[in-house]
UniProtKB/TrEMBL annotation:
Name recorded for this polypeptide: Prostaglandin E synthase
Cofactor: glutathione
Originating species: Nyctibius grandis (Great potoo)
Family per record: Belongs to the MAPEG family.
Keyword annotations: Cytoplasm, Fatty acid biosynthesis, Fatty acid metabolism, Isomerase, Lipid biosynthesis, Lipid metabolism, Membrane, Oxidoreductase, Prostaglandin biosynthesis, Prostaglandin metabolism, Transferase, Transmembrane, Transmembrane helix
Function text: Terminal enzyme of the cyclooxygenase (COX)-2-mediated prostaglandin E2 (PGE2) biosynthetic pathway. Catalyzes the glutathione-dependent oxidoreduction of prostaglandin endoperoxide H2 (PGH2) to prostaglandin E2 (PGE2) in response to inflammatory stimuli. Plays a key role in inflammation response, fever and pain. Also catalyzes the oxidoreduction of endocannabinoids into prostaglandin glycerol esters and PGG2 into 15-hydroperoxy-PGE2.
Upper taxonomic lineage: Eukaryota, Metazoa, Chordata, Craniata, Vertebrata
GO cellular component: membrane; perinuclear region of cytoplasm
Reactions this protein catalyses: prostaglandin G2 = (15S)-15-hydroperoxy-prostaglandin E2; (5S)-hydroperoxy-(6E,8Z,11Z,14Z)-eicosatetraenoate + 2 glutathione = (5S)-hydroxy-(6E,8Z,11Z,14Z)-eicosatetraenoate + glutathione disulfide + H2O; prostaglandin H2 = prostaglandin E2; 2-glyceryl-prostaglandin H2 = 2-glyceryl-prostaglandin E2
Amino acid sequence: RAAPSPKMMENKVFMSFTFYSTILILKMYVVAIITGQVRLRKKAFANPEDALRNGGLQYYREDPDVERCLPRRAHRNDMENIFPFLFLGAIYSLLDPTPAVARIHFFIFCVGRIVHTVAYLLQLKAPTRSVAYSVAQLPCFSMALQILLATIPYW
């Protein structure tokens, strides 16, 4: 006989949120790996000890190609957007929304962030990146509004 599952694991919306959140976290790891690979290829290291290990202090420098995928840009943008989504999505999941509607919220955000990252790293023509950003914000605003409406009686 299987052990009983925790209540959250029975929540279809929360499980969908967990799936898409995990995809987004994995995407963030991929960006970090790409950053490391570009650093190695360009021999542009952020720390002197890394430069010394890979050829000398002359490689302790910035490079425009590396900067494009550093946390200050693509990765930082992810943190500024994905972390709020993680909070909003988790709370939204507790409001018992319709599973199909919730899934659409999570899917749109996830796809928008993936397209945003691809547009950033491949330097796609404008307005690809800004459209992807804007589309991904729509479900976040929707979830935030629904959370506020649900919690107004408790303020």
